[in-house]
């Protein structure tokens, strides 16, 4: 959020002209504005939820590089290794549907409490694992617990964030994946010199450290104002928005505008259907388009080729002649630092660049990188030239540059934006579930394919990335410069029917024509 500016042009790019006109013309940056500083600090709790996922992938890469870990589990075959990795997304897949129901019924925070407790339990069992079965069960619990954290956290961030910050802070959410990855990678690198069972048990236990911290501070995070409004608790929503968006000013025109927009949109959605189900994701053409986009993003979050780097970097490095443990663990650590820098930079620029251009440029870059990576890997397979192997490593980093610049900020932020409130929880669940099914399949297929056919397997991802570019070109709209409620018109057409504001900032009954803000409000 360090690049957030107060210029009128930047505001209009981020939230559109109507809402930008109501934002305070305050020259002070957010970190010197007390209520915004407090809001962004409490949002750090859900913001770091995806760090647990990043920790897991990086840790498993690191553990596979440790001879002591491989020996303790009797040198797991490709199928056993695939099972160890696959049970994590399997647990997450089954947990995410229960999470969606819990979050819509009881609020965004309750499933997070459940998730943090499960992650702590799973980390303890994993660190104390006595055999393969116990290790697998622990990872199943970790995956199940992750669902209760990964689904509601970005939704809570998007529904609670200050309007000017929403796009960027939601985009930053997935960047913390790499914070977890860095901790795991360098932690594993440090413990790799112990030459005892603690070289892998310590990183396993540490996986529960961040959930402990988040569990302690979750109490201070307010509930989603949109969820409160949907449950008829308008006064509580007003109090939260006034405190965190207007510094306690209950008569703020900005808060009045936000409340009118939220109340009108949610009331309209609830009038159309008082009870929603997953079938509603497919009942209308706009919803089918939304759901298809969410599933495409979820699928390509794994099958863009990233999964073989995230979980099987050791096997990839083996194919280009980098086989010593120290080098493999070091490369894993360096990639995580690189990932974090690129993903945060991209997230901070997302409102300036726009979602659609970022998708198209990044996918084209990933495709070109994979083509070069494949060709050089084929050359190395015949020549075993160390220089060629190092060139492959360079293109792996280039691929990560484009992946981190697109998927990291938009893997969850984009699906969250495109769904209306009543379908947001289920829509994000479908995107996450699709991603987990794709990941489960890849966890079994990737190690076997890399072992059996080596570099030829990369051709699959070249084809898939070319298809992905075409899908984005024809299906993905630009959502930049709109509030969550206004994005509905991109898919449904016309203005969303929400309340109007009178000159005192009070909401009037909506007439179905959309938001109107009279001149008195913005003087």
Automatic annotation (TrEMBL):
Pfam families: Sugar_tr. InterPro entries: MFS_dom (IPR020846), MFS_sugar_transport-like (IPR005828), MFS_Sugar_Transporters (IPR050360), MFS_trans_sf (IPR036259), Sugar/inositol_transpt (IPR003663), Sugar_transporter_CS (IPR005829). SUPFAM superfamilies: MFS general substrate transporter (SSF103473). It is found in: Membrane. One of its GO terms (cellular component) is membrane. Keywords: Membrane, Transmembrane, Transmembrane helix, Transport. GO terms for molecular function: carbohydrate:proton symporter activity. Residues 511-523 have a biased composition (Basic and acidic residues). The chain crosses the membrane at residues 36-55, 75-98, 110-126, 132-150, 171-190, 202-221, 292-317, 329-350, 357-380, 392-416, 428-449, 455-476. NCBIfam families: SP. This is General substrate transporter. The lineage of its organism: Eukaryota, Fungi, Dikarya, Ascomycota, Pezizomycotina.
């Amino acid at each position: 959020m360090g690049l957030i500016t107060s210029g009128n042009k930047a505001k209009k790019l981020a939230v559109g002209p109507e809402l930008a006109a109501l934002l305070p013309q305050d020259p002070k940056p957010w970190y010197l504005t007390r209520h915004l500083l407090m809001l962004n600090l409490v949002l750090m709790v859900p913001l770091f939820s995806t760090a647990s996922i990043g920790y897991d992938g990086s840790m498993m890469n690191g553990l596979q590089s440790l001879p002591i870990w491989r020996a303790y589990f009797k040198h797991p075959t490709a199928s056993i290794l695939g099972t160890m990795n696959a049970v994590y997304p399997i647990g997450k897949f089954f947990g995410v549907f229960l999470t969606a129901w819990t979050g819509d019924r009881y609020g965004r925070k309750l499933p997070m409490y459940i998730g943090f407790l499960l992650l702590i339990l799973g980390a303890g069992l994993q660190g104390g694992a006595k055999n393969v079965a116990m290790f697998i069960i622990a990872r199943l619990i970790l995956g199940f617990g992750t669902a209760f954290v990964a689904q509601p956290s970005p939704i809570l961030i998007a529904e609670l964030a200050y309007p000017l910050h929403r796009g960027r802070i939601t985009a930053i959410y997935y960047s913390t994946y790499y914070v977890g990855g860095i901790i795991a990678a360098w932690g594993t690198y440090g413990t790799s010199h112990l030459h005892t069972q603690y070289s892998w048990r310590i990183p396993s236990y540490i996986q529960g450290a961040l959930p402990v911290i988040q569990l302690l501070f979750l109490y201070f995070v307010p509930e989603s104002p949109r969820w409160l409004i949907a449950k008829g608790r308008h006064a509580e929503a007003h109090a939260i928005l006034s405190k965190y968006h207007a510094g306690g000013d209950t008569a703020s025109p900005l808060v009045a505008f936000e409340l009118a927009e939220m109340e009108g949109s949610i009331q309209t959605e609830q009038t159309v259907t008082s009870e929603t189900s997953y079938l509603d994701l497919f009942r209308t053409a706009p919803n089918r388009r939304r759901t298809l986009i969410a599933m495409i993003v979820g699928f390509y979050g794994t099958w863009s080729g990233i999964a073989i780097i995230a979980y099987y970097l050791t096997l990839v490095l083996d194919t280009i002649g980098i086989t010593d443990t120290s080098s493999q663990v070091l490369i894993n650590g360096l990639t995580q630092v690189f990932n974090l820098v690129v993903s945060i930079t991209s997230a901070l620029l997302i409102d300036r660049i726009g979602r659609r251009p970022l998708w198209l440029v990044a996918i084209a870059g990933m495709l070109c990188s994979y083509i070069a990576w494949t060709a050089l890997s084929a050359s190395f397979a015949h020549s075993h030239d160390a220089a060629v192997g190092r060139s492959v490593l360079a293109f792996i980093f280039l691929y990560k540059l484009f992946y981190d610049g697109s998927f990291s900020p938009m893997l969850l932020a984009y699906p969250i934006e495109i769904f209306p409130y009543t379908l947001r929880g289920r829509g994000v669940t479908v995107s996450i579930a699709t991603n987990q099914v794709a990941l489960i399949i890849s966890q079994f297929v990737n190690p076997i394919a890399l072992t059996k056919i080596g570099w030829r397997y990369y051709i699959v991802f070249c084809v898939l990335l070319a298809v992905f570019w075409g899908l984005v070109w024809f299906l993905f709209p630009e959502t930049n410069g709109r509030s969550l409620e206004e994005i509905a018109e991109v898919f449904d057409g016309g203005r969303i029917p929400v309340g109007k504001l009178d000159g005192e900032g009070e909401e009037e009954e909506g007439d179905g024509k959309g938001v109107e803000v009279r001149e008195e409000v913005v003087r």
